[in-house]
Here is the input.
Amino acid sequence: MIKAIIFDFDGVIVESVDIKTNAFGKIFEHEGVDVAKKVVEYHLKNTGISRYEKFRYIYKEILKRPLNDKEFQILCSKFASLVVDGVIMAPYVKGAIEFLKSYASEYKCFVVSATPLEELEDILRKRDIDQFFQAVYGAPVNKSEAVKKTLLKKAIESHETVYVGDAMSDFFAAKENLVTFIARINNNESIFANMECLKINDLTKLVDIIKDIQ
Here is the structure.
């Protein structure tokens, strides 16, 4: 019997993936078209990984130059300024808010995201949905560790839990903790094409899928 649901945030609860993709392109556009293209391609192949890790990779592997602490903080500030307001205003994934309003009292709901925790908590408050979640995890805690902490702290068994995500980082976080994974499919079909997991286009039928697992 499923008792808990772990949600990724971007692309699962709100339609905000494109906002962050555009931000990566914008931040590195001054490096030239080719670099910006490589940055965006890297980001799209690694959705669900924190911006912290991505900035370090971009400097090391794409720009081929060191990233000092001052530059790193500037990048983080620029990125936040480009995305926060957009994510707060982004539309919900179809069925998401309806599910939370109807079933957050029936299931223990959590958010596990690569977004920095303070920023994520601010977004949830401003969207007035923070009350639906019993705990929220964001960067720098990685997703697998966040799932592990959720299960331990809330005394929930793996087989009582599902994880709804849209990135390979979500898939692996669920797999490493023996949690049933549900992939939200939206322009990411190729990522999960060969993966054995439940797949949904939105959250309108989520409760039916969960009840079928029980």
Observations:
- The domain at 4-16+92-213 is CATH 3.40.50.1000 (Rossmann fold).
